[in-house]
Write a structure and sequence with these properties.
732 residues, Immunoglobulin-like, 6 domains, seven-stranded antiparallel sheet, 59 strands, Gly_rich_dom, Glycine-rich domain-containing protein, signal
Length: 732
Amino acid sequence: MKLKLSFLFGFISVYSWSQSTTQTFNSSNLFFVPAGVTSLSVQAWGGGGSGGGASGAGLLFGRGGAGGGGGAYASNTISVAPSAALNIVVAGQTLGTGGANGTAGGNSTIVGYETSILAAGGSGGAANNAGGTPAGGAGGSAAASAGVVRLDGFPGIIGNSAALLSLLLSSGAGGTGANFGGAGGAGLSSLILGNAPGNAGSSPGGGGSGAINSALGTPQIGGAGAAGQVIISYSCPTYSLSSAATTGICSSYGSTATVYVNGSTSSLPVGNYVVTYNRSSPSATGLTANLTVSTAGTGYFFATGLTTVGSSTITITKLTSEACSSIISANNTATVTVFAATVGGTITSIQILGFPSASLDLSGQTGSVFKWQSAISPFTTWTDIANANTTYNTGNLTQTTKFRVVVQNGPFCDVVNSEPITITVNTAPTITLKNNVANYCFNTNIDEIIELGYTTTGNPTTYSIVWDSFSSSIFDNVVDNQLDEIFIDVPFNIAAGTYTATVTVKDAGGNVSSGTTFTMIVTLAPTIDVTTITSVCSSSNSQNTTLEYSGMTGSPTGYYINWNAAANTAGLADQGITSYVFTGTGGFIETIEIPANVPAGTYRGEIRLVGDPSCEGFDLVSIVITNECTSRQVASSKESFSQNGIQADTANLESAENNVSVNSINKVLNIDSSDRNINQVLVYDISGNLIYNKDAVSNPNLVINNLRSSNQVLVVKVVLDNNKVEIKKVVY
């Protein structure tokens, strides 16, 4: 079948017989070499020269111009690169000029191939402006052309002149284009007084005829030389495929897939193609796409419009490269999978009762589970969990943890994380004691209070102390006391030994710490009960006075006295270690040293009992030094007196009972004596500094509400009106 296609405004004609194709160029244009085409057969005709003009004939005379020469012919076979763009040059029509010589026609060639293929144009015919027989234009020269075959164009015919009334006036005809090219323009003739322009030559390459002029007529132009022509012939290869394949796409990235095609180097040669294809979903036929084959045998194109999630079959029906095309019916299908965009989904949890763990379930996702991940505070680093299921059991957690799932739908969509879920673990608080084992030295004649140093984590609010079975007979358990400072009340009658307790703390959520063991090793300090040191007069000499004591625990072997700062400033120096033999029945210590020149005043300090170097007993003492010294008769025998309505004598004085209580409530000290008036109250801080002194109380109770003291343990010394001294410790 012979197929004729006309395009490019009618200036190019394409003829294709099976795989042989011819393209004719009647004007300059580009020619794109089809894929697989490496040689072209080219024929070219040069342009015809225009005819000569005619002018200046007298009243009774006539003049005829000469015809232009026809264009030359050339042919050759040239080698080309597939897909190359060739610039085809076709000589255009050459117009004549009024009363002037004709113009030579142009050359026809291919740019870059001028030495292989070129057809020269014919020369213009001579004008007749003075009479006579002007010469016709020479035909295009084979010598000036290039090609395996080169032929001269035919020359134009000479012009002539006519006398009387320009009878039988004529002009020269144009020359014919070489090798059956276009005819030259026909010469003009006139019986009498003719004026006319020359006739144009026919394409390809016909020369224009000369003009005629007579009887003072206006100048006439020669006929136009015809345009040249280029004819290209070549054989098209047969295109075919050995396979077609494609990759999937993700709908979130658009609707275009890459389709890869393969063939042999001869069936899919290098070049540019247009692919015609059908698409199954959404259905469409006769779609086209550009295909570039840079390496023979393989290439790719883009299939568009894949907007429906799922599978779509691409069927290639034709491959076209310029004027070459082949119907494709084998190995021509590829299936594209269009994946929906990945959706991470949502995790739900079911807390496992009684355990710090949860069962997690992913739902609402689009895509497959790639892995799970977890993160702990501050939740900036995620740790992979090798699990491709939609469910996950966290196992027992020790702290609050976030979980998320990494999901991907197919290999072409993005990896997307699910919304994270937080599994909150209420971590129990902790308590750490500064000393888990501590040695304590206690005086058995006073209550002691000790403070436990500690640090905590987890914001506990209360504490509990539970003693073991041995210790619980001495100490009371503490349950959920407000956590501030932790104090332990040690009763005055505690026995030496090892006492063990477990300390825990609890937070506001009810989470209880692990128990921390506290072991208290108690050593009892030696003790005596003392009264006020016997008053002495201020003296310029050093002197001794006495201190009466009663009762004794432990085995003291001596004592020393530390006076407070005020006493030291007054000159009452501390007394160093002094040996003394104490008895269990009591007695008088007669070696209390008072230095010389201590002014009158009341001075206070503490007497410390030595024996065990790691555990010294102590008691508070005071002395009154006076300037009012008078003689005083001392009874030589015992005297009787009434105590609580019962007759007693001085020998029975120590057996008289009295109870003193000291309580601290809202920063107010309440001091009460059951049946004696209070003579004096002294309050010392934990360092032994006197912070309060009240003389001559003369009442069985005293309220102190203006005490300036921080939170601490205070020592309260109460002197009754019978000089009985009781010492109490209280938490303030």
